[in-house]
Design a protein that fits this description.
The complex is a heterodimer of chains A (307) and B (245).
Chain A lengths: L1 E10 L9 E9 L3 E6 L5 H8 L7 E6 L2 E2 L4 H7 E4 L11 H11 L4 H14 L15 H14 L4 E5 L7 H16 L3 E5 L3 H7 L2 E6 L2 E6 L1 H5 L6 E6 L5 H5 L3 E4 L4 E6 L4 H10 L4 E5 L2 H9 L2 H4 L4
Parallel strand pairs in A: 3-8, 3-9, 6-7, 7-8
Antiparallel strand pairs in A: 1-2, 1-4, 4-5, 9-10, 11-13, 11-14, 12-13
Helix pairs in contact in A: 3-4, 3-5, 4-5, 5-6
Chain B lengths: L2 H20 L2 H8 L3 H9 L5 H29 L3 H6 L5 H29 L7 H26 L5 H14 L12 H7 L3 H12 L10 H21 L7
Helix pairs in contact in B: 1-6, 2-6, 3-4, 4-6, 4-7, 4-8, 4-10, 6-7, 7-10, 7-11, 10-11
Classes of the chains: A alpha/beta (307), B mainly alpha (245).
The structure holds adenosine-5'-triphosphate (ATP) and magnesium ion.
């Protein structure tokens, strides 16, 4: 069974003439992590909220775990758990209060709720702050409370709308590990993020949305192939002839004093020698998701990046 | 315990009891405010007017809790996104509303207890205590449902506070809540029967042994209040924004 199956899903917010989401058909396999990428305002949250029964579609259909998310919202709501974008914990409540009470509200008995709360607080390193009111916690810890609430719940499908925003690199890895645990137990996940490394590490399947439409979809492997060249070489800018570099492929100014050449494996040797000869530092790597993202949805002309 | 009831109590526990435990002073402030008008009326009338002032203050406090619930709900929705978490869960909108309304009641409990005690002190017999409690519960639930319904419409309003004070005037100031209904000319008196708070106040006045109009009866009062309760619950259930459109 599919975790999410949307057909021509469209959302036009009240009073808006253009659709925030337009004709989006997405299939999310169960026990997989599906990631939505896209620029600010692309429509990711709009999609997530329609699937999570928080927002009505204008047109099209969406089913979640086999139930129609509009007509059978009640059934869907038994089976899902969410981290809303930019949610905030209640100021006076502690991490323990949030997770423990939420689990009970979702129907767990006290004993199980206690075990699960301990478990998730431990995993996310919130245990030492378990009794501190949220207003006295840092921004990242507050975010982790929301993630803990969602992950502690026994559900089949998890919606994570930018779950690791504001988290330090160690905390992010803890959240990733918890997400992977969830998947290992057979759970499905719909994730949105602006962190390409996060998407690369977690996703089984990715859709890139731009201005309300899906512009690319596939595994990381599939998406990497969108850029014609498979290799990128970053080389210090000093005194390099851009036109000469362009003969190897496309060239982008990273803005950090280096030029990025998208090229083929066959050019690695030549370009490396060129850099070595001039004593310029350089790195060679495969094309990343970040590159694909910028290639697909980055407006390079106005961004002034293309060298 | 049935799950929705348990859920409502857990919501009330989280937003009410836990909050109060960490901010006990807020109980003091919420307990004091319903007595301000009572105090003024008591002083001005040299105590002559106490019974109307008590009935009025009790009704106005309950209207206030309903409106405060509306504000809380809009706040939880827009500022905390907590409502989004509840929507995408097995908690129904009415359970959510009940939970927050219970928490509101908890904050109001000290004031309500004192006001109800004053009703008894100022003439109600102890046999009227069930009537007093029924009046409080009926108005509390219908005002809560009204607050929940209004909350959806206060969400994006910059003038939410004006709407709140307007509703407060319509329900607690203009109708005969603080003053004898007999003071109104006939036409306005009949009009005021259309307002649920008129009946709540009349029930309290009745229980304190004050005269009520010949055309009014307890049954009439209950009927109108129950009709409003049902109406507001239906509005809350169908028209309050739960899943956004
Ligand atoms: N409640 C709303 N009313 C009207 N328009 C809205 C509403 N919510 C979102 N939009 C519009 O819909 C479009 C998509 O917004 P959405 O929040 O889905 O973007 P997003 O991809 O999640 O962006 P971000 O990465 O910034 O979170 C935007 O143009 C936004 O302005
Ligand atoms: Mg978003």
């Amino acid at each position: 069974m599919l975790a999410i199956d949307s057909e021509r899903l469209t959302k036009r917010y009240k009073g808006s003439s253009i659709a925030a989401l337009n004709d989006v058909s997405i299939k999310v396999e169960s026990a997989r992590i599906f990631t939505l990428l896209g620029r600010n305002g692309a429509g990711k949250t709009t999609f997530v909220r329609m699937a999570a029964t928080q927002l009505m579609p204008t047109f099209g259909s969406i089913s979640v775990l086999g139930y129609d998310a509009v007509r059978q919202a009640k059934q869907v709501r038994q089976l899902i758990s969410v981290v809303p974008q930019e949610g905030r914990p209640l100021r006076a409540l502690t991490p323990w209060d949030h997770v423990y009470n939420w689990l009970q509200i979702r129907g767990e008995d006290k004993k199980i709720a206690k075990e699960k709360t301990e478990d998730i607080l431990q995993k996310l390193e919130l245990m030492q702050f378990r009794d501190r009111p949220a207003m006295n916690l840092s921004g990242g810890m507050k975010q982790k409370i929301l993630v803990a609430m969602a992950l502690a719940v026994d559900a089949k499908l998890l919606f994570l709308d930018e779950p690791t925003i504001g988290l330090d690199p160690v905390s992010r890895r803890q959240v990733w590990a918890a997400i992977k645990d969830w998947k290992a137990k057979g759970g499905s996940i719909l994730l949105t993020t602006h962190y390409m490394d996060e998407a690369e590490i977690l996703s089984d399947q990715i859709a890139i949305i731009d201005k309300g439409s899906v512009v690319a979809e596939g595994t990381i492997h599939d998406l990497r192939k969108i850029i014609p060249q498979n290799t990128r070489i970053d080389v210090a800018k000093d005194g390099l002839d851009i036109d000469m570099l362009k003969s190897y492929g496309s060239v982008v100014d990273t803005g950090a004093g280096t030029l990025r050449v998208f090229t083929f494996e066959s050019s690695i040797r030549e370009l490396s020698e060129l850099a070595l000869k001039r004593n310029l530092p350089f790195t060679v790597s495969p094309v990343t998701l970040d590159d694909v993202f910028v290639y697909l949805v980055g407006n390079l002309e106005s961004g002034g990046q293309r060298a | 315990m049935m799950l929705p009831v348990r859920q409502a109590f857990l919501i009330a526990y989280s937003t009410g009891i836990l909050w109060l435990r960490r901010n006990p002073s807020s109980l003091f402030f919420s307990a004091i405010s319903p007595f301000s008008l009572l105090f003024v009326l008591f002083v001005i009338s040299n105590g002559q007017y106490s019974q109307f002032a008590i009935a009025g203050s009790l009704v106005m406090a309950l209207v206030g809790y309903g409106l405060a619930l509306g504000q809380d709900i809009s706040f939880y929705k827009t500022e905390y996104k907590i409502q989004d978490v509840f929507v995408a869960s097995p908690v129904s909108p009415l359970t959510y509303m009940m939970g927050l309304a219970l928490s509101e009641l908890l904050f109001g409990l000290p004031a309500l207890t004192v006001l109800a005690a004053l009703v008894v002190y100022f003439g109600a017999s102890v046999f009227n205590i069930p009537l007093i409690i029924a009046t409080i519960l009926l108005l509390w639930s219908s005002m809560s449902a009204m607050g929940f319904f209004l909350s959806s419409h206060m969400l994006h309003m910059r003038n939410a506070t004006q709407v709140i004070s307007f509703v407060n005037v319509i329900l607690a100031v203009l109708p005969p809540v603080f003053y004898p209904i007999a003071n109104l000319p006939d036409s306005l008196r009949y009009l005021s029967y259309a307002v649920p708070t008129t009946h709540a106040s009349l029930m309290l006045q009745h229980s304190m042994g004050l005269p009520t109009p010949a055309e009014w009866s307890l049954g009439f009062g209950y009927a109108v209040q129950i009709a409003y309760l049902v109406g507001f619950v239906v509005l809350a259930k169908t028209k309050a924004i739960w899943r956004e459109t």
